[in-house]
Amino acid sequence: MKPKVFVSRRIPDRGLEKVLEFCDAEVWEDELPPSREVLIEKTRDCEGLLSLLTDKIDGEFLDQCPKLRVVANYAVGFDNINVDDCTARGVAVGNTPGVLTDTTADFAFTLLMSAARRVVEGMDYVRAGRWKTWGPMLLLGRDIYGATLGLLGLGRIGSAMAERAKGFNMRVLYYDPYRREDLEKELNLEYVDLDTLFEQADFLSVHVPLTPETNGMVNAARFKQMKKTAILVNSARGPIVNTNDLYEALRDGEIAYAGVDVTDPEPIQTDHPILKLSNFVVCPHIASASIETRGRMAEIAADNLIAGLKGEALPAPVNKGVIAKRK
Ligand code: DGY
């Protein structure tokens, strides 16, 4: 008999076909995620769950899904999952690292460039019929080449940003709790403390995971340290940046601009005043959303799920060493 699994949203066929072949799967077809109650109800008798970053998986959830042996998250980030709770119950957890690194860094750089060169404002200007002639002072932005990029976090995506910055002849500073001397030479990076990072960056790009330590770490005090001409880019997780502090910093000219793919909350309330600011560019959490990358993510998530169901080591484990124990 095929193992029962719940797939909490439709994912690309490349992964879904594998899941359907190996498992007795129910797929949630709605655009919106299932509520917690529905997620529990659907997963209660399942051995596997292919989850999304909108699904909160914790001890209380796991205790109501006693057969669950593996949670395969369709994302590299796994702040939606209490990994300790999973480990304590012998539930293997997998994510999708690596395959989305370049796609996400491409998009973070897109946000950086859109903010620096005021691309969205330009589009709005044209659409509003305001483009009458070539203007010497029209929509002046900031140069990217030769500027200083500050990377908050030097994991895979932070490093991929540094590679892109090389092509723009940028000076690149980084802060990470783990110093990467091996990468410093290769990517021409300077390791600095947090204060220096915020004070010297022309572009400050966020690449740390969301943890209790990073939650709200980009806040009013940090904006005050930044250059008034600085641009913030966030393609990591919304709650790392305090939304109201960001709004005030942009409104009051503490920093010049922000380009973000993630917000807190997500989605941002449509009546939030930050959406009225012209120096704010926001996208709906699509940094990894290329056709190829989303297909590869689906494949890894499926491989994690199936390995977990077979009682094998996951190809991309989060709690390495935890082989699905529950029967
Ligand atoms: C992730 O993978 O963590 C992204 O936020 C979605 O691709």
Radius of gyration, in angstroms, nearest whole number: 21 Å
- In CATH, the homologous superfamily of the largest domain goes by the name NAD(P)-binding Rossmann-like Domain
* Helix-strand topology string: EHEHEHEHEHHEHEHEHEHEHEEH
According to DSSP, the number of beta strands is: 12
> What best-fitting shape do the alpha-carbon axes yield?
globular
> Structural class of the helix and strand makeup?
alpha/beta
- Total domain modules: 2
Going across the biggest sheet, name each strand in turn.
8-7-6-9-10-11-12
Given the structure, what is the number of helices? 12
Distance between the ends: 14 Å
**Uncertain ranges:** none
Q: What about the largest sheet?
A: 7 strands, parallel
- The CATH architecture term of the largest domain is 3-Layer(aba) Sandwich
Q: Might you state the CATH topology name of the largest domain?
A: Rossmann fold
> Helical proportion?
25-40%
